[in-house]
Amino acid sequence: MQLQVNATLILIDQQKGIHEPRLGPRNNPQAEERIAELLEHWRARSWPVIHVQHLSRSPESVFWPQQLGVEFQQRFMPLAGEPVIQKQVPDAFCATGLAADLQRGGVGQLIIVGVATHNSVEATARTAGNLGYETWVVEDACYTFDKQDYFGQWHCAQQVHAMALGNLQGEYATVVTTRDVLMAGRAG
Fold first, then answer.
1. The domain containing residue 48 runs over which residues?
2. Plot region of 69 (φ>0 → left; ψ -120 to 50 → alpha; else → beta)
3. Is this structure's pTM higher than 0.85?
4. Other C-beta atoms within 10 Å of 185: how many?
5. 102, 73, 69, 68: which is closest to 85 by C-alpha?
6. Into how many domains does the chain fold?
7. Of 187, 166, 184, 175, nearest in space to 138 by CA
8. Most buried of the four, 74, 91, 132, 135, by CB within 10 Å?
9. Dist. CA 164–CA 118, nearest whole Å
10. Are residues 84 and 43 in contact, defined by beta-carbon separation less than 8 angstroms?
């Protein structure tokens, strides 16, 4: 495994609202630490970082605009020069300038972290893979929540996380760990 020149770290929905208790139990309690570790690694090398911010169309959402939940968490606040892609649906490519920005930057590889694994992370990684990007999803730097399936059966967040990663692995993306990425970054 090796990081390409211009490998871009994409942080998905690291906003205050994601900590809203009504979202329910989650997995990967150390995910934010892993995200911060990767972000620090990227920034120390002046590698490209893109922040994705969800602006919901639903007033019931934790990401409804013009309330605190939509704001970035302090530790993941974009720095000057780090682009912010604002989206209204889970897929960060849909109706945004993300693909054009990546093409302009000569980017061929995306490292995706954030929340929720089964929602915005999976949707964005699927499109990235379909568009031909070498896409890595960092499993210990993503998390999700308990979720009910179509038939009414509840699944714990770790099961939902595992299924989403299983959906991506090998077809749309390569699922990796933070350690894998950091090792690849030191080799490159």
1. 8-187
2. alpha
3. yes
4. 18
5. 102
6. 1
7. 175
8. 135
9. 5
10. no
Instruction: Characterize 22-54 residue by residue with b for buried, 16 or more Cβ atoms within 10 angstroms of its Cβ, and e for exposed.
Output: ebeebbbeebbebbbbbbebbeeeebbbbbbbb
For residue 124, give the CATH number of its domain.
Answer: 3.40.50.850
Strand partners, 109: 134
pLDDT in tens, 130-181: 999 999 999 999 999 999 999 999 999 999 999 999 999 999 999 999 999 9
Q: Are 176 and 1 in contact (CB under 8 A)?
A: yes
How many CA atoms lie less than 13 Å away from 188 in the CB half-sphere? 17
Contacts of 174 by beta carbon, 8 Å cutoff, 6+ apart: 1, 134, 135, 136, 137
